[in-house]
Amino acid sequence: MSTFMMGVDIGTTSTKAVLFTEEGRVVAQHAIEYPLFTPVPGAGEQDPETILEAVFGAVRHALDKADVKGRISHVAFSAAMHSLIAVDADGQPLTRSITWMDTRASAWARRLSTDMDGHAIYLRTGTPIHPMSPLVKLLWLKAEHPDLFSRAARFVGIKEYVFYRLFGRWLVDHSIASATGLFNLADRTWDAGALAAAGITEDRLPTPVATTTAVMGLSAEAAERFGLPADTPFIIGANDGVLSNLGVGAIGPGQVAVTIGTSGAMRTVIASPRTDPSGRTFCYALTDRHWVVGGPVNNGGVVFRWVRDQLAASETETAHRLGVDPYEVLTRIAERVAPGAEGLLFHPYLAGERAPLWNADLRGSFFGLAMHHRREHMIRAVLEGVIFNLYSILPAVESLIGPTRRIMATGGFARSELWRQMMADIFNREVVVPETIESSCLGAAVLGQLSLGRIASLDAVTAMVGATHRHHPDAGAVAVYARLWPIFAALPAALSAEYSAITEFQRTAPKR
Ligand code: ADP
């Protein structure tokens, strides 16, 4: 009798459980959302207990939607990276889960880079020095909440907490570990220098294990809550970013996954870990023989949302009245203008930026504005600016892995034909939109198949991922963007002092 596999993704807005056939077809799914708490400015916290409940609920409900009792080969996990929970000796949380969105450790990221050995730590650990990094959060916790820091028996992430509650063991997969800033990529152990910088010893962290590790022996209560036999293999899995690469089938040489949802990222898989002498890229583990390098951007679709809400109120209202998606109305307006928006560029740094410049002080701007520019030029320039920004990561990625050929594109932006074609033209590469919806869940489930010997290699995923759209570069547009690209790239490089000055001004500017 055929079996089914389940992928569970513990994300920032929800936990999703997806039940697949062995061939990767979705049978049932369920998602449970939870809140993000911001008790003070910069905070981005979640309640670990609520997330544990969501894991039980999502799996249970997905199983209930299908008639597959007793036929689950494995449950495999994906999780958002960079979370940090301090727990006491009994495993009780002393803090909420401090997520990647939390920016309270910003000053410590700067200090680690300038006064401490930040860059050398990045080169060994693969996690950029940034407030999202658990290493940087530990520095902040030690300085600003010393009581809590010393009371904590252990520091763990959300998936480690969930596994502890299910199995009573403190384990972390190599992939989540590689996104803590504390994990030595070459040795696959906790990095002595990073631990010294954080002021902790190894016994205060979970034990690192391979991403393919299968854990068994659910407590009777947990088995009952999931509705699964206690001996169901639970595959520890990896982080959501690397699993998304696997889930869209971007694991071969020269294949790049680019996602633009609210934020965005570029990622590609290589056979051994590599970091960037200029510190522009991350490197995270997928398996011991697959490593993912790339860069995350803050300014993805959120910038288009800002345009919709701030610059296009009347179009949005009309769209709502006609019952159409405002984004579609806006992209149709942008289509009236030729590639290059007749010499208008937009730098989309509304939320500062991570890769490749890693500068929270960057700010957005239109450049080249002239009397002939109308609103449609501005909308088109914004869409182009978001793609140019992602394209600016490519040189760093290619300096590590060599030439790239094909883009697997995912995220909300891929709903727009215009935006997808823009990506093909700016990148001058074929763009393919895979069919998979929950790519991290599929990636987890496939990693589980490898773990259990049900597939010979991760390449099996290619047969599971279909394509919905393909775009080839248009030679005319490629030539236009190639002329604009040096102008786009030169500006942020030249304006570093002015970005800081305007950010400082904004911080202290009079408000009404
Ligand atoms: P999230 O990252 O929060 O899961 P999505 O992947 O759904 O979000 O992406 C949301 C973004 O996708 C929006 O902010 C918008 O920029 C973009 N988007 C959504 N629908 C469309 C569309 N029809 N055309 C163009 N862009 C769209």
Structural notes for this entry:
Among the domains are: 4-241, Nucleotidyltransferase, domain 5 (2-Layer Sandwich); 301-392 and 484-498, Nucleotidyltransferase, domain 5. Helix 13 (326-334) packs across helix 14 (375-391). The model has no long low-confidence stretch (mean pLDDT 96). With 512 residues, the chain is of the alpha+beta class. The longest helix is centred in the C-terminal third of the chain and has 20 residues, at 475-494. A 7-stranded mixed beta sheet has the order 17-18-16-15-21-22-23. Strands 3-2-1-5-14-13 form a 6-stranded mixed beta sheet, with helices on both faces. A two-stranded antiparallel ribbon has the order 4-7. It is 39% helix and 21% strand. The chain starts with a strand and ends with a helix. The protein has 19 helices and 23 strands. The structure holds adenosine-5'-diphosphate (ADP).
Q: Looking at CATH, which topology of the domain at 4-241 would you report? A: Nucleotidyltransferase, domain 5
Task: Estimate the mean pLDDT confidence.
Answer: 96
Tally the helices: what do you get? 19
CATH architectural grouping of the domain at 4-241: 2-Layer Sandwich
**CATH-level-4 superfamily name of the domain at 4-241:** ATPase, nucleotide binding domain
Low-confidence stretches: none
Helical fraction: 25-40%
* Side-by-side strand order of the widest sheet: 17-18-16-15-21-22-23
The CATH class of the domain at 4-241, by name, is: Alpha Beta
Strand content: 15-25%
Coarse morphology: globular
Bound molecules: adenosine-5'-diphosphate
Sheet of most strands = 7 strands, mixed
Count all strands and give the number.
23
For the termini, the CA-CA separation is: 69 Å
Structural class: alpha+beta
**Rg estimate, integer Å:** 23 Å
